[in-house]
Amino acid sequence: MKSIEELYKRALELKNKGMSDKEISTELHLSVNTVTWLLSKEFLKEGAVQDVKIGWRSLGVFGSRIISIAEVMSDIIREEMQRNSFEVDSILGIAINGIPYATMVSYLMDKELIVYRPHPARKEGFFSSNFAGVEGKRIVIIDDVASTGETLKRTITDVTKEGGKAVLCVILASKMGVDDLNGVPVRSLLRTRIIGGT
C-alpha cells in the first residue's frame, strides 16, 4: 500500500466483506488497534504515525522465497537449540500466514508440523486434527508478523493447556521489542520500531 488512504480503503473493503477487525489486522499485517483507528477515520485528524505496516508479499508469491526464509528460520532455531540446550519435536504454524513458513521449516528440520488457528473472538484457538498433536511435544511457534504479541501469547497458553511446551517463537517481523513472551524466547528476522515523532 502506498498511502494511508489506500490502507483505509482496503480495510474498509475487508470490513464490508464481513471480516472482523482481528481478521483485517491479520490480512493487512497491522495491529487490531490500528485497524480500529483506520476504520474510525481518526487518521484524518491525527498526524502522528500509529503503526508500522509490514508487507511481505514479495516473499510470499514464490515458494522458493518462502523456502529461503525458512532456511534462515531453521538456522535461528538450530542456533537457539545449541545455545540453550533444548530439543524440538514439532514446528507449529499460526494460521494463516505462519503456516507456509512453518511447513518449510518442518520439512527442512525433519520435524512434525502442527497447525494452530487462533479464534478471532474467543481467547482459545484450536489445533487442526489433520496435523501433528501437541501433547508431550517441545514446540517452536512460527508466525509472520507480531504486532502486540497477543496471538503468540494465546498460542503459548493453548500449547501449554494441551500438554505441550513452547520452547521458542520465531517470527518474520516483530513490532514488539521484546525478547520473550510468557517465558518463551522470541526471535525475529526483522524488528521494527518507531523512532522520534510526537
Describe the structure.
This protein has 7 helices and 7 strands, in the order αααααβαβββαβββ. With about 200 residues, it is an alpha/beta fold. It has 2 domains: about 5-45; about 60-190, Rossmann fold. A 7-stranded mixed β-sheet has the order 3-2-1-4-5-7-6, sandwiched between helices. α1 (about 5-15) packs across α2, α2 crosses α3 and α5 crosses α6. The protein is globular, with a radius of gyration of 17 Å. The two termini are about 25 Å apart.
What is this structure, in a nutshell?
The chain is α/β, with parallel strands linked by helices and 198 residues long. The protein has helices spanning 4-16, 21-28, 32-39, 57-60, 63-84, 98-109, 150-161, and strands at residues 90-94, 112-117, 126-127, 138-146, 165-174, 180-181, 184-191. It is built from seven helices and seven strands, in the order αααααβαβββαβββ.
Write out key terms for the chains shown.
alpha/beta; Rossmann fold; 2 domains
Question: What layout of secondary structure does this protein have?
Answer:
Elements: H1 4-16, H2 21-28, H3 32-39, H4 57-60, H5 63-84, E1 90-94, H6 98-109, E2 112-117, E3 126-127, E4 138-146, H7 150-161, E5 165-174, E6 180-181, E7 184-191
Parallel strand pairs: 1-2, 1-4, 4-5, 5-7
Antiparallel strand pairs: 2-3, 6-7
Helix pairs in contact: 1-2, 2-3, 5-6
